[in-house]
Amino acid sequence: VMTTDMTLFGFGLRWMVTFLGFPLGGAAAYALVRSVDTPLRGLLGGLIAGAILGLAQWLVLRLRLPVSVWWIAVTAAGLAAGLALAVQSVGVALDVPSIALRALIAGLCVGVAQWLVLRQHVDAAAWWVAIVAISWMVGWLVTWAARVDLSFGWAVFGATGALSFALLTALAWALLLPKP
């Protein structure tokens, strides 16, 4: 149900609530898959966490754009592919370069997947790919800097990283979204 009278500021505030999709999705993925330490577990954990994150984002995004529920599916598929590829190619080391590279790979996959839906509604949608990839990496680095124990092999970053991701992407929406 799209509302055309929503200001960019109002949308940005609502978008910040999507950060909840990360801890909820991460908790569900951990409960069902445990550590994302193999490509298969990355695939499964990504599907679970990505579906919950995609739902949280879609619930807010549809207030401003007529995006279909495919947003949820592509987010889940993107995170599943991204985590599987990241674990396969980088491994599960907890040093900063490994964390950053895994995050960049996963974020790039999510961004490309979401772009498939977004390009139908936003002229500059290609920027979303880079925005998500960089914001995803920042989210993981903020989580690491907050001293969250990453040895659990979480599918997504914690609340501190999620808030950072939500803030960066909310600012990006202010530039990407058509004016109401």
Mean pLDDT: 95
Q: In this structure, how is the largest beta sheet organized?
A: none
Radius of gyration equals 15 Å
Number of strands: 0
Shape: globular
Amino- and carboxy-terminal Cα gap: 15 Å
Indicate the proportion of strand residues: under 5%
> Any low-confidence stretches, pLDDT <50, length ≥5?
1-5
Number of helices: 7
What does this entry look like structurally?
With 180 residues, the chain is an all-alpha fold. Helix content is 71%, strand content 0%. The protein contains 7 helices and no strands. Helix 2 runs antiparallel to helix 3, helix 3 (39-61) packs antiparallel against helix 4 (70-90) and helix 6 (126-145) runs antiparallel to helix 7. The longest helix has 23 residues, at 39-61. The protein is globular, with a radius of gyration of 15 Å. The protein starts with 7 loop residues before the first helix and ends with a helix. The model is unreliable at 1-5 (pLDDT under 50).
Short description:
With 180 residues, the protein is an all-alpha fold. Helix content is 71%, strand content 0%.
Throw out a few tags for this protein:
single chain, 180 residues, mainly alpha, 71% helix
Walk me through the topology.
Layout: H1 8-16, H2 21-33, H3 39-61, H4 70-90, H5 96-118, H6 126-145, H7 159-176
